Amino acid sequence: MSANLTATLASTKPGGNLKAQLRRAERLRKLKAIGLVAPLALFLIVVFVVPIGSMLWRSVDNTELDAVMPLTAQGLRDWDGTGLPDNATLAAFAAELRDSRQGGGLGRIGRRLNYEDTRYRGLLMTTLRGLPAPGEVDTDTDWAAILSEIDPAWGETDTWLGIQRAAPTTTDRYLLASLDLERGAEGGIQRIDSQDRVFLSVFQRTMVIAGGVTLICLALGFPLAYLLATLPARTSNLLMILVLLPFWTSLLVRTASWIILLQSNGLVNQGLINIGLIDSPLQLVFNRIGVFFAMVHILLPFMVLPLYSVMKGISPSYQRAAISLGAHPFAAFWQVYVPQTISGVAAGTILVFIMALGYYITPALVGGPADQMVSYYVAYYTNTTNNWGMAAALGSLLLVITLLLYLVYHRLVNRKQLIRS
CA dist 131 to 69, 97, 112, 146, 393, Å? Predict the structure, then answer.
């Protein structure tokens, strides 16, 4: 009787059940939030995190030889790199080379070894045809002599050192090559020959083109967004349709149209000749000028829309108040209005810059050989040479550079906002 009375009093005590109910309500709210976010999180993991993780892994992946010739790879990893590998490793190489014809293994290791030296594919095919049948050899067979008889290259230490470089399951070869670096004979990192240096200039070119396109879009998009934000709603909506109109046309069609407009007999050159500004056609396509024209046209709406959304929320009374207090109209605009648009400028510039970094079709169609960006070489190694490691390394470095630039830009913008506040 007394126990029941105590429980009843506890349940009716102010705050007794209320705390438990609040805890249950909070847990229920969190579960609902997790349930709502879970599909989006799963989608991002499947289509964003996993592909990027796979790309990062492929930039250091070196498992081709280990997957097809595990015993050979292990023997070469244990080899000291002098003379020739031991007879057991050579016997394993011969046996695994013979078995590699099944399942496409021979093609995989041939492609991988060709990255080290282009002679390997032909050397493997010749060796495979000259190998003795399994019944013609025994445990005492001198495989160094047999392989050297098939092709003298197998008697050279450098031939086996090239295969040894492909034996580890991970490698920094692709990442170093993406920076015009390589490992020397002693294992140290060094720059490659000057005539073979390509990618540092490609990365520099990519940054210059992306930065130039971003600055041009900002110079054109800021006044356009300001005009859209200050005009009456009816006129502004009509002009906004014109801004969004390029989204209704295929990227490929828009790029091809610039080739027609900028070519020697195109409308631009013919118009300039007809009004007397030039005597002969200008080279406006298949060079850097054509790249800037086409990319600015495509990316300009991505600058205008963030700026417009921010400018639309800025009250004009601040600028009028500054002018009424004696400020020059331009000073009022620059010191009062522009600082309020920093968030829109930051969003627009980083959006355009990141999109410009990854452009491939536009520079490939309207640019020349000296105007191709990193994405062109990623596509080249993916589609033409099937060198996925090199393509992944270039993509990974581009991702890292983009993230670093974004962090620096974000910090600078925040610092400016703190100083102004």
Answer: 16, 9, 21, 8, 37
CA atoms within 13 A on the CB side of 323: 10
- For residue 195, give the DSSP letter: G
Q: 3-state SS of the chain: helix, strand, coil percent to 5?
A: 75, 0, 20
User: Residue with structure tokens 């929320």?
Assistant: 313
Tokens at residue 68, please?
Answer: 């097809």
In this predicted structure, what is the pLDDT of residue 421? 58
Which among 203, 414, 369 is positioned nearest to 211, based on CA atoms?
A: 203
Name residue 116's amino acid: E
Please name which of 405, 403, 406, 214 lies closest in space to residue 302, comparing C-alpha atoms.
Answer: 214
pLDDT along the chain (421 residues), means of 10: 47 63 88 89 89 89 92 93 91 91 87 88 91 78 90 93 91 92 82 90 94 96 93 88 86 89 89 88 90 94 93 87 85 88 89 90 90 92 88 92 83 66 58
The three-class DSSP label of residue 181 is strand
Percent of the chain beyond pLDDT 70? 94
CA distance 389 to 378: 10
- CA dist 380 → 110, 176, 238 (Å): 19, 18, 42
Beta strands 189-191 and 181-183: pairing type?
A: antiparallel
- Distance, CA of 198 to CA of 181 (rounded, Å): 11
Task: Tell me which H or E stretch contains 227.
Answer: helix 199-230
CA distances from 395 to 163, 192, 269, 353, 381 (A): 26, 20, 38, 16, 11
| Cα four-point dihedral sign 94, 96, 98, 101 | negative
pLDDT at 419: 58
Q: Global pTM?
A: 0.81
Alpha-carbon dihedral of residues 149, 153, 154, 157, nearest 10 degrees? Answer: 140
Tell me which DSSP letter residue 183 carries: E
Tokens of 271: 């118009």
3-state secondary structure of 182: strand
